[in-house]
């Protein structure tokens, strides 16, 4: 189940498919706690028109790793994780220094450009 945006002031709890590993470096995380922030409220009110109906909202969560792809080396099943809502390239000036929030090509995408965390997984 997940909270799915269907348009301004239309968000509902819906059945969604359980995610599966697609890429070798994918990991699946069972959400144990998530929060609602001001951005989610803006989305609900229709204040972020880039968010398309059908999008699972949410971008702040913690959980437990339940499956990893064969290329994943820094997490294992059973690990408790906090997941960043900001993506990073891992290669730019800032990323190689561990300052991921300043990545020159990264951005906030969970619950905005890709499905978010107000879900079971």
Describe this structure in words.
With 121 residues, the protein is mainly beta. It has one domain: Quinone Oxidoreductase, Chain A, domain 1. The chain has one helix spanning 38-44; strands at residues 2-7, 10-14, 27-34, 61-68, 80-83. It has a three-stranded antiparallel beta sheet, with no helix packed on it. The chain has a two-stranded antiparallel sheet with strand order 1-2. The radius of gyration is 15 Å and the shape is globular. The mean pLDDT is 93.
**Highest-level CATH class:** Alpha Beta
Multimerization status: single chain
H/I helix tally = 1
CATH topology description: Quinone Oxidoreductase, Chain A, domain 1
Short structural description:
This protein has one helix spanning 38-44; strands at 2-7, 10-14, 27-34, 61-68, 80-83. The protein is mainly beta.
Helices and strands in order:
Elements: E1 2-7, E2 10-14, E3 27-34, H1 38-44, E4 61-68, E5 80-83
Antiparallel strand pairs: 1-2, 3-4, 4-5
Structural descriptors:
mainly beta; 5 strands; globular; 121 residues; 1 helix; Quinone Oxidoreductase, Chain A, domain 1; 3-stranded antiparallel β-sheet
